[in-house]
Amino acid sequence: MIKNAVVPVAGLGTRLLPATKSQPKEMLPVAKKPIVQYVVEELAGSGVQEILFVTGRGKDAIENHFDHDPNLLALLSATGKEDLIDELAFENLNTRFLYTRQSVQRGLGDAILCAEPFVAHAPFIVALGDSIIGLQERSTVCARMSEVLERHQAAAVIAVEPTSREQVSLYGVVKPETDGDIFAISDLVEKPTPEDAPSNLTIVGRYVFEPVIFDMIRRLKPDRHLEIGLTEAIRMLCETGHRVMGMKLQPCEPRYDIGNYPSYFETFVEFALADPKYGPRLRERLAGMLAAEED
Fold first, then answer.
1. Is the whole-model pTM more than 0.85?
2. Which of 111, 225, 265, 271 could cross-link 8 (Cys pair, CB 3.0–4.6 Å)?
3. Is 19's pLDDT higher than 80?
4. How far is the CA of 80 from the CAs of 71, 92, 238, in angstroms?
């Protein structure tokens, strides 16, 4: 079982302005939790013991959120709000949090490279801090990917899901060598046109790597946006003869990519409706609102 994970959270989140002007995109709430808390709880449930956040300027709220706050606990106890203490149970996860900064925005590949001293010579998980996997049940995708890495002696394993051809231009797309839920990947393309996409299988923000990925990242030159892409580094793994595997998400673990307002609004509503305490009341209220619009 892989014990270390890297969570890149250095992006500016400009597509979610003005909400992200003074707070990290990853800290925006989805129902009762910030986005990144879902990611951390997923990793902890997969056996991860240490998480390195690759942060940037203005991301202090993430560190504060996962830090213990004895003053808040004392206040809740002193004011008879012990029931709210259960909402802070995530502070007791058996996980150690570390932080490093990507001082200049140079893309996801460069953010991963910042984690090399933390990873050392061991395989590691990468989970993007703005993508939630699963709704009703916590996803085990990272644990399953770790098993695939070891079983196939691969250099990388990438989680993917089928996407409509109209949407493939928003994501990285893999070229599978065979059919099935687990397969070898021969190539990847970042945000292709629907006509040029090698498949409809898009990358969902979960990866497992051997440290050789750092060698590939260092060999890359910045693109026209002065960024170093992770997809290009994985593509170089394929070109240099390393084994790269893909694994499809299961039907019970949909991906929620919170990168723009339509997907954020839809995700918030879906998670809020699934809340056992507040969901039924919200569902009734929404039904009334929609019925009023039809009248």
1. yes
2. 111
3. yes
4. 14, 21, 58
